[in-house]
Amino acid sequence: MLSASKLLFLCLLGIVLLGGVTPSHAAVRRYRHGVKMPRYPWSDGPEFVTQCPISPGMRFSQRIVLSDEEGTLWWHAHSEWYRNSVYGALIILPPRRESYPFPKPHQEVPILLGDWFNGDIQEIMEEFLGSGSDPEVSNSFLINGQPGDLHPCSRQDTFRLRVESGKTYLLRIVNAVMNNIMFFKIANHNVTVVGTDAAYTKRLTSDYIAISPGQTMDLLLVANQRPSHYYMASRAYASGGDFDNTTTTAIIEYAGNYTPPASPALPSFPPFNSTASSHNFTTQLRSLANKKYPVDVPKNISDTLLFTLSINLRPCANDSCEGPFAERLLASVNNVTLQLPRTDFLQAYYRRINGVYTTDFPDNPAFPFNYTQETTIPRDLARPQNGTSVNILDFNATVELVFQGTNLVGGIDHPMHLHGYSFYVVGSGFGNFNRTRDPPNYNLVDPPLMETIAVPRNGWTAIRFKANNPGVWFMHCHFERHVSWGMGMVFIVRDGPGRDEKMLPPPPDMPLC
Ligand SMILES: *[C@@H]1O[C@H](CO)[C@@H](O)[C@H](O)[C@H]1NC(C)=O
Ligand SMILES: *[C@@H]1O[C@H](CO)[C@@H](O)[C@H](O)[C@H]1NC(C)=O
Ligand SMILES: *[C@@H]1O[C@H](CO)[C@@H](O)[C@H](O)[C@H]1NC(C)=O
Ligand SMILES: *[C@@H]1O[C@H](CO)[C@@H](O)[C@H](O)[C@H]1NC(C)=O
Ligand SMILES: *[C@@H]1O[C@H](CO)[C@@H](O)[C@H](O)[C@H]1NC(C)=O
Ligand SMILES: *[C@@H]1O[C@H](CO)[C@@H](O)[C@H](O)[C@H]1NC(C)=O
Ligand SMILES: *[C@@H]1O[C@H](CO)[C@@H](O)[C@H](O)[C@H]1NC(C)=O
Ligand SMILES: *[C@@H]1O[C@H](CO)[C@@H](O)[C@H](O)[C@H]1NC(C)=O
Ligand SMILES: *[C@@H]1O[C@H](CO)[C@@H](O)[C@H](O)[C@H]1NC(C)=O
Ligand SMILES: *[C@@H]1O[C@H](CO)[C@@H](O)[C@H](O)[C@H]1NC(C)=O
Ligand SMILES: *[C@@H]1O[C@H](CO)[C@@H](O)[C@H](O)[C@H]1NC(C)=O
Ligand SMILES: [Cu+2]
């Protein structure tokens, strides 16, 4: 557990060290996932959105600006598919002399869920982008870097957590997996969620969790079972298509004198395709919403947005692609598939460079249709348009954004992540969002404050936030293949009139494109 200044030092050290792990042909950017960086998008990270890639041998000191975050976040590379191996936890403690809004745990344990590909991740990325098909799936998932006992390769290195009977442990879970929402479960034990995305939640006791890529979750585990060995395990939730169906494990080992079982108990999981299990769990999260941790959900909305999230197809010359119907798979937000510019959006905005992006990213779908229709939707609708466009918000705008999943090509969940902000998740459901029927059921009392939210398959999710952080902020699906296919967009939040309401100037060492 580190103070902010030590963390900053470690991160700076990390940048220097990273030079050593970066393949020589590669350039990376790093992103502190979930740190809001008030008025300072300059070290936010995503390539060609807020900065140019850091070339090999180059040095760029990223400044982390913490504000109201408290709990677990993480950092990762935000360039191509490098985040597969370049990531770590970032833990923010309560201010000195203050305590957690839950009993002090005996020990705190970061649990990083990741995935392992037998191939070179960069080649896998280039291959699927070239062929137009789905990417290869991972070969295993990882807990703290290890696939666990169900894989023959490294049983001796399986992560082990020693616990003492009666004590409470705080597990800080990070889902750094590339392409899957994950179920996580501990045999014979319940867990109690106390926070997500560096904001505290009301206690939620459950025998499993569902966690999106990008999301973090803080769980209390009480060692209250018969002393033995138990598996904690994780496997995918997948609503369709090809996926990695393996299970990664780690071991909870009780201290004491007993004969451990030859094989620890393995938890039983919800079915892989149980959208209900994923969605039920997620919709039970609630903010603490008390005097010390109040909610401040916007009630008087100035900007009402509805963004469709779609998988798309585009024909290839001579039917040469390997996606469905020999076409190329793409993805879009409001039918716009994002084309990254060669000069980053932030630089172009700050220096008023014309011709890099347009400002016409639509507030609503241009062509409403039955988004979640189960019967075949005409393929013409599945052709997206290219765009390098931004949606501009005034400073202090109060925004309601409804994400609407579509069944174009195939419905699937989308873990949506917004940079620069936390947002309140005020509602969600299946089918098409209905502006008459649904808003009266919003939770404006204790909605969870999050940074990544899984929009359910063929359903919708409504979020609210106040645009009080001026800058250029990326919003994207956290499934890596979807963002590679173009499922992302950019908000520009204008400066306000006040001195503290303007974006700060760039540091002197911003990388050049
Ligand atoms: C887990 O929680 C459920 C529901 O609250 C309860 O019925 C069950 O006994 C608990 N199990 C353990 C092992 O604590
Ligand atoms: C995983 O998929 C493989 C190949 O499709 C299949 O043989 C195997 O039974 C599946 N395993 C589980 C646990 O579903
Ligand atoms: C999940 O898969 C099972 C077996 O493959 C199938 O019977 C069931 O209908 C599927 N459920 C959903 C919700 O798709
Ligand atoms: C999800 O929640 C609904 C309503 O609370 C319940 O009827 C259903 O059984 C739950 N499904 C699962 C898989 O937990
Ligand atoms: C709601 O916001 C508008 C500006 O968007 C403002 O004119 C109006 O006074 C506000 N109403 C309330 C009740 O705060
Ligand atoms: C498509 O096929 C034509 C005729 O066989 C060929 O001349 C052309 O080069 C092909 N184009 C691509 C992109 O493969
Ligand atoms: C939209 O599609 C859903 C699912 O196929 C269907 O139940 C519903 O009736 C359709 N709505 C309209 C207005 O056609
Ligand atoms: C998306 O835009 C393309 C190009 O303008 C159009 O052909 C297609 O029908 C649009 N699809 C939707 C769902 O609006
Ligand atoms: C979209 O952009 C890609 C390059 O990123 C280009 O190959 C393609 O022709 C463009 N398609 C349309 C419909 O504009
Ligand atoms: C923005 O909102 C803050 C907090 O409500 C307020 O103090 C500030 O005056 C507002 N600024 C503008 C320009 O609306
Ligand atoms: C939206 O909901 C209202 C109220 O329940 C209902 O009257 C209306 O038909 C719904 N609209 C659509 C397009 O389903
Ligand atoms: Cu997605």
Automatic annotation (TrEMBL):
<dbReference type="InterPro" id="IPR045087">
    <property type="entry name" value="Cu-oxidase_fam"/>
</dbReference>
<keyword id="KW-0479">Metal-binding</keyword>
<dbReference type="InterPro" id="IPR034289">
    <property type="entry name" value="CuRO_3_LCC"/>
</dbReference>
<keyword id="KW-0964">Secreted</keyword>
<dbReference type="InterPro" id="IPR033138">
    <property type="entry name" value="Cu_oxidase_CS"/>
</dbReference>
<dbReference type="GO" id="GO:0048046">
    <property type="term" value="C:apoplast"/>
</dbReference>
<protein>
    <recommendedName>
        <fullName>Laccase</fullName>
        <ecNumber>1.10.3.2</ecNumber>
    </recommendedName>
</protein>
<comment type="function">
    <text>Lignin degradation and detoxification of lignin-derived products.</text>
</comment>
<dbReference type="GO" id="GO:0005507">
    <property type="term" value="F:copper ion binding"/>
</dbReference>
<dbReference type="InterPro" id="IPR002355">
    <property type="entry name" value="Cu_oxidase_Cu_BS"/>
</dbReference>
<keyword id="KW-0560">Oxidoreductase</keyword>
<keyword id="KW-0325">Glycoprotein</keyword>
<dbReference type="GO" id="GO:0046274">
    <property type="term" value="P:lignin catabolic process"/>
</dbReference>
<dbReference type="GO" id="GO:0052716">
    <property type="term" value="F:hydroquinone:oxygen oxidoreductase activity"/>
</dbReference>
<dbReference type="InterPro" id="IPR001117">
    <property type="entry name" value="Cu-oxidase_2nd"/>
</dbReference>
<feature type="domain" description="Plastocyanin-like">
    <location>
        <begin position="33"/>
        <end position="95"/>
    </location>
</feature>
<keyword id="KW-0052">Apoplast</keyword>
<keyword id="KW-0439">Lignin degradation</keyword>
<comment type="similarity">
    <text>Belongs to the multicopper oxidase family.</text>
</comment>
<dbReference type="InterPro" id="IPR034285">
    <property type="entry name" value="CuRO_2_LCC"/>
</dbReference>
<dbReference type="Pfam" id="PF07731">
    <property type="entry name" value="Cu-oxidase_2"/>
</dbReference>
<feature type="domain" description="Plastocyanin-like">
    <location>
        <begin position="108"/>
        <end position="257"/>
    </location>
</feature>
<dbReference type="InterPro" id="IPR011707">
    <property type="entry name" value="Cu-oxidase-like_N"/>
</dbReference>
<dbReference type="InterPro" id="IPR008972">
    <property type="entry name" value="Cupredoxin"/>
</dbReference>
<dbReference type="Pfam" id="PF00394">
    <property type="entry name" value="Cu-oxidase"/>
</dbReference>
<dbReference type="InterPro" id="IPR017761">
    <property type="entry name" value="Laccase"/>
</dbReference>
<feature type="domain" description="Plastocyanin-like">
    <location>
        <begin position="361"/>
        <end position="495"/>
    </location>
</feature>
<dbReference type="Pfam" id="PF07732">
    <property type="entry name" value="Cu-oxidase_3"/>
</dbReference>
<feature type="signal peptide">
    <location>
        <begin position="1"/>
        <end position="26"/>
    </location>
</feature>
<keyword id="KW-0186">Copper</keyword>
<dbReference type="InterPro" id="IPR011706">
    <property type="entry name" value="Cu-oxidase_C"/>
</dbReference>
<keyword id="KW-0732">Signal</keyword>
<keyword id="KW-0677">Repeat</keyword>
